Amino acid sequence: MTLFSGHKNDIRAGDFSDLDSTSRGRNDNDMMNIENCKIDNLKAKLLLHSCCAPCLTAVNGKIDADFDISILWYNPNIEPLEEHNKRLSVLQNFADETAIQLNNYKYDYREENDKWHEAIAGFENEPEGGKRCEKCIEFRLQRTKELSEKYDLFTTTLSVSPHKNAKFINEFGKKLSPKYLKSDFKKENGYLRSIELSKEYELYRQNYCGCLYSTKY
Ligand code: SF4
C-alpha cells in the first residue's frame, strides 16, 4: 500500500481500508511506505471530518502518528440544535485537551440543516443504514471535499460505526476526489476502542446517530 510518492506535486491518495492486524494496524511494508513518503520530512496534511468526539478518539489514536491532522466539524444532520452544539462542544474540549488541531470552518446551522433536509428528501422513513444515511454521508463528504483544498488528503471518522458501510463511504469518497483517504476504522475493534477511550476521557456518548429520524429506532 503506497500512501504518497516523494514529491508534493505527486501525491497519491492513501488507502487504509485493507489494514492487517499488526501493531497500529499496518504491516511492515505499509510502515515503510509511510516513512518513505513523507513530504520533505513532513507528514501529509489530512482534513478529518469528525462526526463526534467518541468516534474521533479511536481514529486519532490509529493515525495521528502518520498525518498532520485537522479536524473538520460539519454535521448539520444532528438534531435538535442543542444536541448539535453539545456534541460540537464535547469535540472542541477533547481536541483542546489532546492538542488536536481543529479546522476553524463555521456554518449557519439552520441554513445547512435545511439543505440537509433537501438532500435526504424522499428517504426520511428509511431504516438506519439505508438510502437516507447514504444521502447524509454524501452531503457531509461533499462539503469536506470542498474544504480540502489546502490539504493533501481528506477522510471521515464515520466508518468507525458498525452502522456505517465503509465500502459505500469509500466508493463515494473516491468518486469525489483522488485525495480521499480510504478507510474502515471499525476494523481491529475500532468501535470498541472508541467506547473504551470515551470512558477514559469521560466523554458524553449520544444514544442516537444524529437526525431526529434516528431517535425512533
Ligand atoms: S441516521 Fe445518522 S447517518 Fe443516517 S441520516 Fe440520520 S444522522 Fe445521517
**The CATH superfamily title:** HUPs
By helix and strand content, what is the structural category? alpha/beta
Spatially, the strands of the biggest sheet line up as 4-3-2-5
Assembly state of the chains shown: single chain
Number of beta-strand segments: 6
**Sequence stretches where pLDDT stays below 50 over 5 or more residues:** 1-13, 19-37
Distance between the termini: 39 Å
Explain how this protein is built:
This protein has seven helices and six strands, in the order E-H-E-H-E-H-E-H-H-E-H-E-H. The protein has 217 residues and is an alpha/beta fold. The chain has a four-stranded parallel β-sheet. Strands 1-6 form a two-stranded parallel sheet. Strand 2, helix 2 (53-63) and strand 3 form a beta-alpha-beta unit. Helix 2 (53-63) packs across helix 7 and helix 5 runs parallel beside helix 6 (166-176). The model is unreliable at 1-13 and 19-37 (pLDDT under 50). The protein binds iron/sulfur cluster. Iron/sulfur cluster binds at residues 77, 128, 132-133, 136, 209-211, 213-214.
Compact summary:
The chain has 217 residues and is an alpha/beta fold. The protein has helices spanning 28-36, 53-63, 81-98, 109-120, 131-146, 166-176, 190-200; strands at 15-16, 44-49, 67-72, 101-102, 153-156, 182-183. The protein has 7 helices and 6 strands.
Per-chain topology:
Layout: E1 15-16, H1 28-36, E2 44-49, H2 53-63, E3 67-72, H3 81-98, E4 101-102, H4 109-120, H5 131-146, E5 153-156, H6 166-176, E6 182-183, H7 190-200
Parallel strand pairs: 1-6, 2-3, 2-5, 3-4
Helix pairs in contact: 2-7, 5-6
